[in-house]
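TICKET: design request
STATUS: open
ATTACHED STRUCTURE:
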């Protein structure tokens, strides 16, 4: 197994065994559920478009985010930018990205972007992993970028799974998926 395959496999095993199966059956009410007031989410902005809540600089403390926001963050910020920068294809612009208005649409976006990321990482040579990428703002070795994305997807994937658990068990009663 090559070094790039080992890096891809680190995430892929966790993704396919632990995170992605837990997202099966995600319903729109869970996708948009706001467990506390003031959550950041993905919201309609007119004419069938959706936008992701954000502020720059981000408030301290950061708001609690919905599953919709977290999935959009994975699709656009964690994977989308980097897929475009490092593996070719269309550059992602967070202001004009077609954010998902349903859970099914968000999962389809996530699956497509994850597959592009995974395929791109697996094609990296050792020389690619040792060097900073030629495109994009990240100017440290590509191996560090891959490891960062792995951490982000594992971290946010666990948060999404926890939010699903909290939604299911709210009010002390188990809600079917």
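STATUS: resolved
RESOLUTION: sequence designed for all positions
ATTACHED SEQUENCE:
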């Amino acid at each position: 197994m090559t070094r790039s395959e080992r890096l891809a496999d680190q995430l892929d095993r966790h993704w396919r065994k632990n995170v992605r199966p837990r997202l099966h059956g995600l319903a729109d009410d869970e996708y948009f559920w706001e467990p506390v007031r003031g959550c950041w989410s993905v919201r309609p902005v007119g004419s069938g478009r959706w936008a992701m809540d954000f502020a720059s600089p981000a408030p301290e403390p950061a708001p609690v985010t919905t599953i919709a926001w977290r999935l959009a963050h994975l699709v656009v910020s964690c994977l989308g930018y980097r897929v475009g920068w490092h593996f070719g294809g269309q550059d992602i612009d967070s202001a004009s990205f077609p954010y998902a208005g349903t859970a099914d649409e968000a999962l389809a976006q996530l699956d497509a972007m994850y597959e592009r990321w995974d395929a791109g990482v697996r094609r990296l040579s050792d020389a690619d992993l040792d060097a900073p990428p030629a495109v994009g703002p990240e100017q440290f070795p590509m191996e560090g970028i891959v490891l960062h994305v792995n951490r982000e997807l594992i971290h946010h994937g666990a948060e999404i799974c926890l939010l699903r658990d909290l939604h299911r068990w709210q009010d002390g009663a188990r809600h079917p998926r």
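CLOSING REMARK: DSSP finds six helices and two strands in the chain. The first strand starts at residue 42 and ends at 46.
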